[in-house]
Write a structure and sequence with these properties.
alpha+beta; Dipeptide-binding Protein, domain 1; D-Maltodextrin-Binding Protein, domain 2; Dipeptide-binding Protein, domain 3; 6-stranded mixed beta sheet; 4-stranded mixed beta sheet; 17 helices; 25 strands
Length: about 625
């Protein structure tokens, strides 16, 4: 899941965006999953990929606005935790390097077989083995076919370097792979260490596989020969060090020949396609694209960076953008853009927004580990008011780990209603019942220390005050309004929030490392910049393994609950949605995070000259190869 941008998995990839967001359309129950479970594939070498439709010579340039203070800065498709964002993965890497399986179609977050590089997996061996047949006819830009060897290359690099992968969870992917068999150039199988849920295996594990050009990248230095280094652990580590080092060298993104070998519809413009200083990116058509869908219709796709939503708005109004976003504070300008031929479209997202809680803070962690305190804080978050007053109706409440919008089969019936509605009296009552002298508009104090049911809790001394730091990233007006509203509301129960803005929130977000002190100072951090913080991409089945399991890479607050770990494991291994609902209901009640309204990724404004950009994908994928410009 991602935090704070268009971004990771459980919620996974972060996205720093403006006011409200991106998407339209109701979600169907993904019928394809049933076909995956029951269907059989041909035993041949591979299925033919539909030939891309021929189009006229690409024409025109589309300028698309990046979210505030968020730019593409990691190109190698095994991404580190520090660089795991939806901008890097979905809106940069995937334009050049296609994942094996694609999700999102017609404005829904579901599996899209037509855009995938392989047919759905067939499960056997008591749901322990998935056999996958790749589509034929897909080629790299150097003319070589995309084959199971390229899948093997990605898998072996990942297995040997899993600790460097931004969403690695010990015991999860790739640890759960018991064996792999490569049965031919277009067919392979993966056997898991235990039976797997079909939803989880496809939507969350196989969804992450990205074939890489083994014939061009299997090397340990820029001048070294191509080999099969990935087939030994030491060799795979050497290859990873080389490729990750190249990915860190932003100044060569548009000149490094590695990054010009692509199987996606786009490549970076050679020589002038990337600015390491600003993140400005120019993508041009891969003239040899042979994958699913159409070849690009436009000659250039430019990703334009901005330091704030006000700067983006000025560019949009001046006509410098074809596809941008309207900050919430500028909604009064909708008639202006309509009069100039723009289409307004909220881009809803398959994701959630919340506040991180630092359970590992040596001073305040014992407080945050008290469920009653987390419940009191959640009762002080007035989601309906924030949606109405701050987001002007362009946001949705968040009650747990699954979004209410878009509709999906994954939302528990119990969580269609808020288990912790705004109720300051209930918040004060919870504190008093657990040994606190409550001082509204002041700071509440523990007067009954101890571990009994009417005492403050383990590790909380007499006289301890409820005063916490609250950090957020500047850039969007709605973000500032939200944290200021929370500070005011929390004071009603004597909880003091000491607000502090930071332009480097991502660097702060980590559990406490006592030996270094890193991650030991923060208390609460708003996970976004004006919008949702996490999208379920490319883990589309919204389980919490990456974000809530003890020790998980994206569990940045250090939450740990063995019962939750067991619940998550059940969603991975057991069939049906019953285990998932049990996980979801439990985590919503336990509050490892504080839920905030989830705004759309952005309030898009699309030029009347630009065709094919709507509906917008809830998984935040971009399809500029399907866009066209009128004169």
């Amino acid at each position: 899941m991602s935090a704070g941008e268009r971004g990771p998995k459980l919620a996974r990839l972060r996205r720093a965006a403006v006011g409200a967001g991106r998407r339209i359309g109701a979600v169907r129950t993904p019928r394809r999953v049933g076909w995956i479970v029951l269907g059989a594939l041909m035993a041949g070498c591979g299925a033919a990929a539909p030939a891309p439709r021929a189009v006229a010579a690409p024409q025109g340039t589309v300028r698309w606005a990046l979210p505030p203070s968020t730019v593409p800065n990691w190109i190698f498709p095994i991404t580190t935790a520090a660089d795991f964002s939806n901008v890097n993965t979905l809106e940069f890497q995937y334009l050049m390097f296609r994942p094996l399986y694609w999700f999102g179609q017609s404005g829904t977050p579901v599996f899209n077989e037509g855009q995938s590089l392989a047919l759905p997996p067939v499960f056997s061996n008591g749901n322990r083995t998935a056999t996958i047949t790749m589509k034929r006819g897909v080629r790299w830009s150097d003319g070589r076919p995309v084959t199971s060897r390229d899948v093997e290359f990605w898998l072996r690099l990942l297995i040997a370097n899993k600790a460097n992968w931004g969403v690695y969870v010990p015991g999860g992917w790739p640890d759960l792979i018991a064996s792999m068999r490569f049965l031919g150039p277009y067919r392979f199988s993966i056997t898991f260490r235990h039976p797997v849920s079909h939803y989880w295996a496809l939507y969350n594990e196989l969804s992450q596989v990205v074939p890489l050009p083994q014939q061009a990248w299997d090397r340990t230095s820029a001048s070294g020969a191509i080999g099969n280094y990935d087939r030994t652990t030491s060799g795979a580590r050497a290859v990873y060090r080389f490729l990750a080092g190249q990915s860190k060298t932003l100044a060569t993104y548009d000149t490094n020949p590695l990054w010009q070998v692509v199987d996606g519809p786009w490549r970076i413009q050679t020589g002038t396609g990337y600015s390491p200083a600003t993140g400005f990116t120019i993508l041009v058509p891969n003239r040899h694209y042979s994958g699913p869908g159409s070849r690009p219709r436009i000659a250039k796709f430019e990703e334009v960076p901005f330091t704030s939503d006000s700067a983006e708005f000025d560019a949009l109004r001046s006509g410098a953008l074809d596809y941008g976003y309207l900050p919430v504070q500028d909604l009064s300008q909708r008639p202006y853009f309509a009069a100039h031929g723009f289409t307004f479209s909220p881009w809803d997202v398959w994701g959630i927004r919340y506040v991180w809680i630092n359970f590992t803070n040596p001073k305040d962690g014992p407080l945050f580990k008290q469920l009653y305190l987390r419940q009191a804080m959640q009762h002080l978050i007035n989601q309906p008011e924030y949606i109405s007053r701050i987001y002007h109706g362009y946001a949705h409440p968040t009650y747990g780990p699954v979004p209410l919008t878009p509709s999906s089969p994954f939302l528990s019936p119990r969580l269609r209603h808020n288990p912790y509605p705004y109720d300051p009296a209930a918040a004060r009552g919870l504190l008093r019942e657990h040994g606190w002298a409550v001082h509204p508009n002041g700071t509440s104090v523990c007067t009954h220390p101890g571990t009994g049911p009417t005492q403050c809790g383990a590790g909380i001394a007499r006289g301890r005050q409820l005063s916490f730091s609250f950090i957020w990233a500047p850039g969007a007006v709605v973000e500032t309004q939200t944290v200021e509203a929370m500070k005011s509301a929390f004071s009603a129960a004597g909880i003091t929030l000491n607000l502090k803005s930071s332009t480097n929130v991502s660097a702060l977000l980590t559990p406490c490392a006592p030996k270094t002190g890193f991650g030991c100072q923060w208390d609460l951090i708003d996970s976004s910049v004006g919008t949702y913080s996490v999208s379920y991409s490319p883990d589309y089945y919204p389980t919490g393994g990456e974000g809530f399991d003890c020790g998980a890479a994206f569990n940045l607050g250090g939450y740990c609950d063995p019962q939750n770990d067991r619940n998550v494991t059940a969603t991975h291994e057991l069939p049906g949605l019953g285990p998932f609902y049990r996980y979801e209901n439990y985590i919503a009640q336990q509050l490892p995070l504080l839920w905030l309204p989830t705004a759309p990724a952005q309030l898009s404004e699309v030029s009347g000259r630009l065709h094919g950009a709507l509906p917008q994908d809830p998984n935040l994928n971009l399809y500029p190869q399907s866009w066209s410009l009128s004169p």
